[in-house]
Amino acid sequence: ILTGFALVAALAAVGPAAAADDGQGKAVPFRRGVNLSNWMSDSQRQPLQDGDFAQIKAAGFDHVRVPVNPEFLGFSLNEAATGRVLFDFRPVDEAIGLAMANGLKVILDIQPSEGFLDQVEQDARSEAGFIELWRRVADHFKLDPPDALAFEILNAPKYQDDVQRYSDLMGEIVAALRPIIPKHTLIVDAPRGDSIEGLEAMTPLRDPNVLYAFHFYEPVVF
Question: Cβ neighbours of residue 199 under 8 Å, at least 6 residues apart?
């Protein structure tokens, strides 16, 4: 399906499981992962410790997905649109450090609130602020090895009625990041709530190191 797409199936409870190759025989370093749900996207969650990562590694996983809500770390779309990007990297650095110290690769996923998603979708100024956030994130992690750290741009974007606008935004972000992180894998989630229908409606980007993600919850009652 969708020739030329390298797919990441971001499963609801388990997290993303990357394809074994990119469709052209090139190995993908992220093969079997687990999602660290809500740790840094929900302020109520208990922090993970070194022993948790050791258990994940011992269970046979090679990577973890770390969802981060930037709003909990001081980021504001309105301020970023003016060029003022506040983001407390300390807890994220600690999480990535714990994972890598235990031999795990990391997918850093931006997973904001519903209001954040709506604002980015509806306000061009907020889109600009979101691009600035990613420039700052990329610059902060640019020295981390590309085979150990990947970046998932936006979890569960909506864009129910304007998939092309979403594709255009992802294209702008990827273009903005490539001068900073030319070799890191970028993951673009499907619009329409990360659905397979949204993925099928997307225009693929002209970048050989982009993976595309969708979420699969059916049957929802299960």
Answer: 2, 5, 7, 190, 212, 214
pLDDT(21) > 70:
no
Helix pair angle (124-141, 163-177), 10° resolution: 30
SS3 label, residue 63: strand
pLDDT at 83: 84
pLDDT range class, residue 15, cuts 50, 70, 90: very low
Residue whose pair of structure tokens reads 């974007």 in the numeric block: 157
- Per this entry, what is the length of the chain? 222
DSSP H helices, 24-112, are 50-58, 77-80, 90-101
Q: What one-letter code names the amino acid at 175?
A: A
Query: Residue 206: exposed, middle, or buried by beta-carbon count in 10 A (0-12, 13-18, 19+)?
Result: exposed
H/E run at residue 17: strand 15-18
Task: Please tell me the predicted confidence (pLDDT) of residue 26.
Answer: 56
Query: 169 near 204, Cβ under 8 Å?
Result: no
- Amino acid (1-letter code) at residue 31: R
CB 50 within 8 A of CB 90: no
Tokens for 133, please give them.
């956030």
Query: For the residues 169-183, what does the mean pLDDT come to?
Result: 97
CA distances from 36 to 84, 100, 107, 156 (A): 29, 14, 10, 16
Which pLDDT does position 179 carry in this prediction? 98
Q: Tell me what the pLDDT averaged over the chain comes to.
A: 87
